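Example S7 (structure tokens).
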């Protein structure tokens, strides 16, 4: 099975499947075409396309497609993976070409080799293994492959949910996009992401005459420190989550090109991840109070904008059918007891949960997500495929 995995990863990692939001993002279409051809050659089921249009993309297409394999019953099992990856970013930190598979012992290195090719390959190998054994799955198996997960899901899951009725209330759904390093964690809830943009407007002046200007960069620094108080104000805990709500300044735009200028404008962003018990409107009210404090202290004007906000999704019940089946599959495969948690990072599972669907997020993960030298461990991907194969067979 390792050679099959290497073959899949080698090809899937080669297309540079970036969203058009990123420079050079054209590989989603090529990756989808290659994968469809592979699945067709292996005769793994019927392919149905749900592509959406995007003028920026190759062929003006953002690919979404489903592979359907008939089971013994009419109940559907979905394993949903995403095709796109994040950019390689600082390539100087990579020890190899980010879009060419590197094999080092049990590890495979490349951008996307784990996120999300690991889960994608595990699901394909699981179905392929069943077919080779001439064993019909218990459930109808649907392997759904979608675009745009890394940039907001507009052309992927959101598009599918808004335009098609693919899912039924009793469907079983797995999103293989998060977990732990031992393959024992099943995520059944997510925090609510709230992304904010702050534009601080002061007055530009020469660097030698700060009294003639209002330093927007300095005010932004004061404001960042003030915003850190949110961690104490909203410090409640939830047993499902390892951490409480988080409030982190992240992206910052360039303000001036020359060093000897007091910047009149400074722009930065903040990534907030809210526990289910935290009301986003209360967070915004506190931020607005802090905004007034800094405006009065420094003389700047601060504009707050919501860059992205996903309202909280209900947790998947602990006794949901998919949780029970997946738990038993992990137990039988690993001889260890899995556990249920919530996660701070976001997946499109939250979009499905908002529709009343029960979703388990599961795979064996590592700390290389979105980092240089991203990797997957072959034995762990193969073990995940065995878990998925048991799920497809209802542990029979």
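Recovered sequence:
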């Amino acid at each position: 099975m390792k050679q099959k995995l290497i073959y899949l990863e080698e090809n899937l990692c080669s297309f540079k499947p970036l969203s058009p939001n990123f420079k050079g993002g054209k590989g989603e279409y090529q990756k989808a075409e290659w994968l469809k051809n592979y699945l067709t050659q292996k005769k793994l089921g019927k392919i149905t396309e749900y592509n959406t249009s995007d003028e920026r993309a190759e062929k003006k297409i953002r690919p979404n497609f489903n592979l359907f394999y008939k089971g013994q019953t009419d109940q559907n099992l979905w394993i949903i993976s995403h095709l796109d990856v994040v950019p390689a970013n600082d390539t100087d930190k990579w020890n190899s070409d980010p879009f060419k598979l590197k094999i080092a012992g049990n590890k495979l290195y490349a951008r996307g080799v784990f996120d999300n090719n690991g889960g994608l390959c595990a699901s394909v190998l699981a179905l392929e293994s069943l077919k080779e054994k001439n064993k019909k799955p218990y459930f109808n198996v649907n392997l759904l492959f979608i675009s745009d997960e890394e940039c907001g899901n507009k052309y992927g899951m959101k598009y599918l949910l808004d335009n098609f009725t693919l899912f039924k209330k009793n469907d079983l759904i797995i999103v293989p996009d998060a977990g732990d390093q031992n393959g024992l964690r099943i995520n059944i809830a997510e925090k609510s992401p709230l992304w904010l943009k702050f534009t601080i407007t002061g007055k530009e002046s020469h660097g030698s005459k700060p009294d003639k200007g209002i330093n927007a960069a300095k005010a932004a620094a004061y404001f960042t420190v003030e915003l850190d108080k949110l961690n104490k104000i909203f410090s409640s805990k939830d047993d499902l989550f390892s951490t409480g709500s988080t409030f982190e300044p992240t992206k910052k735009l360039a303000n001036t090109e020359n060093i000897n200028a007091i910047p009149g404008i400074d722009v930065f962003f903040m990534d907030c991840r809210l526990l289910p018990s935290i009301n986003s409107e209360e967070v915004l009210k506190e931020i607005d109070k802090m905004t007034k404090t800094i405006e009065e202290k420094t003389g700047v004007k601060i504009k707050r904008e919501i860059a992205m906000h996903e309202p909280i999704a209900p947790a998947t019940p602990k006794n949901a059918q998919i949780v029970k089946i997946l738990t038993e599959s992990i137990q039988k495969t690993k001889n260890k007891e899995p556990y249920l948690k919530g996660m701070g990072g976001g997946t499109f599972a939250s979009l499905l949960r908002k529709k009343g669907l029960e979703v388990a997020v599961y795979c064996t993960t590592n700390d290389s997500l979105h980092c240089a030298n991203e990797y997957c461990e072959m034995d762990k991907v193969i073990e995940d495929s065995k878990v998925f194969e048991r799920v497809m067979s209802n542990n029979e």
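Notes on this example. The radius of gyration is 23 Å.
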